[in-house]
Amino acid sequence: MAEGAGKYDAEATMVMQSTNATCVIVWVNGGDRGEGFAVQTKDLILLGAIPSIMRSIADQIEQDMKNMS
């Protein structure tokens, strides 16, 4: 994760502010500025947990896809 503003940092900021969230992850596929993602959090402990959270989400998506077939 790069430090500083990225391609979609403004969108992540908008989501953080409009939802009063502690953390947001914005992933863009096929966007007008190309593919990219932005992560923002107010909680450094949560930042460290994001990789395992994302692995869990991926596992859930894979299981859902298996159940659909």
Total domains, how many? Answer: 1
- The strand line-up of the biggest sheet is 1-2
Strand content: 15-25%
Structural class: alpha+beta
Largest β sheet strand count, sense and barrel closure: 2 strands, antiparallel
First and last CA, distance? 35 Å
Low-pLDDT windows of residues: none
Structural notes for this entry:
By secondary structure, the protein is an alpha+beta fold. It has one domain (9-68). It is built from two helices and two strands. A two-stranded antiparallel sheet has the order 1-2. The longest helix is centred in the C-terminal third of the chain and has 25 residues, at 44-68. 6% of the residues are buried. The mean pLDDT is 93.
Summarize the helices and strands and which ones pair or pack.
Elements: H1 9-19, E1 23-28, E2 36-41, H2 44-68
Antiparallel strand pairs: 1-2
In short:
By secondary structure, the protein is of the alpha+beta class.
Observed structural traits:
69 residues, alpha+beta, 52% helix
